[in-house]
What we know:
The structure is a single chain. This protein is mainly beta. 10% of the residues lie in helices and 39% in strands. The strands form 5 sheets. Strands 17, 18, 19, 20, 21, 22, 23, 24 and 25 form a 9-stranded antiparallel sheet that branches. Strands 1-2-3-4 form a 4-stranded antiparallel sheet, with no helix packed on it. Strand 11 (209-215) and strand 12 form a beta hairpin.
Amino acid sequence: MRHAAALGLACALAGGPAHAQPFTVERLLSLQDLGRTALAPGGRWLVMTVEAPWKEAQRFDLDAMTFVALGRPMVADLTTTAPARPLLPIAPGTTYTTGAFSPDGAKIIVYRLRDFRLDLGVVTLATGEAVWPAVLVDVELGAPVARWLNEETLIVLSRSAETSRSLGRGRVHQVRAQAAWAAQATGALSGVVLGAGRYQALTPPPPKADLVRVDLRTGQVQALAKGAFFDMALSPDHRRLALIAQGEGLPAGLEAPSLFKASQRRRLVIADLATGAVSAPCPVCDLANLPPAWSPDGRAVLAAARIDKGPPAFSYWRLDVDGQAAALAPDLTTADSPGRDPRVVGGAAWLAGEPVVLARRGGDQRLDWWRLSAQGPVKLTGSLPTTPGPA
Length: 391
């Protein structure tokens, strides 16, 4: 028995290195990955994005967005035993990523990359039929690009490739540098002016996006608003849209908490989708990099913000659709170092019609959830042994 075990060990040691193969760069670039995977409302359809090997990307000047050039979505009908099929035909030089399902689960938003242009489409899951309303968009990464107003209507933030906040990180800088060198060669101005303090106005404004409504039945694209929008949240009644717009540059020395760092202020704009009216409940509120939360009745937005010339800490505000703005418990603020999970710096939600926020009071180091009632803040999670997470 001991002899057989020794012989087996000797064979394993002798044969192991002979069969092992090094993990080379070529192998690394040949790996496939599984991207976004989601189940449609109703549970019938499963859509998953298979990412092609990195070496097969249609272009390599997208910087960190190269994954967009690898997407090949598949769809599986879970009511059958049939294998997953391509959501859209695979064509050279074309890749796809996916967005949100329609409320009824019958359709899905897709984003098609060709050359340096990313356009929006909608695919019917049962038939594979695609509609392309000729709307250019940015990569949906951390913030929504398109949302369903109903089964046949989309609200979209449209951007050209030249004004992209994500696709342009690699290529646009290169194009601009080449243009600047060409201008310099002819003796023309080849610099970029960045102003601070009283010269802040010299800094070029942030690129703007178009807020549009897309009717999928007719293909009509209706312009609703224009601004430096990069995030949005639809009210529960689908009557209004809370938009986050990039504002003017932050003064030197006004550092925000680690997750909030940005070079520009963030402003809240509310768009009425029925009338097209746009308003700013608090023009001097600089929002934190946290999702705003609509009240259940769609009449107010709860957000973490600070006043331009006020304290640097972010506290919570109620911003009403009628233009009113009110600070809620200013001594409750978001945190820079919230404990074990540095990603959790605050949060906002609603509970039984009242705001609840993830914050800390005064010199406390720990974040807790607080109900902001009419009688004052009430700590909800003080008995928990560890810092609670986001909602």
